[in-house]
Design a protein that fits this description.
With about 90 residues, this protein is of the alpha+beta class. It has one domain. It is built from three helices and four strands. It has a four-stranded mixed β-sheet with strand order 1-2-3-4, with helices on one face. A hairpin with a 2-residue loop joins strand 1 and strand 2. The protein starts with a strand and ends with a strand.
Length: about 90
């Protein structure tokens, strides 16, 4: 899923979200799931595969604000696009 963040109708950032990596040791240990659980629940995870603040944009805390708004939007859009609720978003 791809998003373009606008400020006063001008693009300031671009983001994309995709399915998660199949195996990430640190993530899998943090969650504490087994291999079977990982296979079963991986569709409930998403990866922020691209996050670009356009180079000419200079707005304090813009990245944090854009990412926060994007997380809310992805949480709403993910079930409609993929038919499963989103539980975790990796960045």
């Amino acid at each position: 899923m791809k998003y373009l963040a606008l400020m006063q109708e001008s693009p300031v950032a671009a983001l994309s979200f995709s399915g998660p990596a199949l195996k990430i040791g640190a993530r899998d240990r943090f969650i504490g799931w087994s291999q079977d659980q990982r296979k079963r629940y991986l569709p409930h995870l998403a990866n922020n595969s691209r996050f670009l603040i356009l180079p000419w944009v200079r707005v304090p805390q813009l990245a944090s604000q854009v990412l926060s708004l994007a997380v809310d939007q992805v949480r709403r859009d993910w079930p409609h696009q993929f038919g499963t609720p989103l539980w975790l978003l990796e960045t």
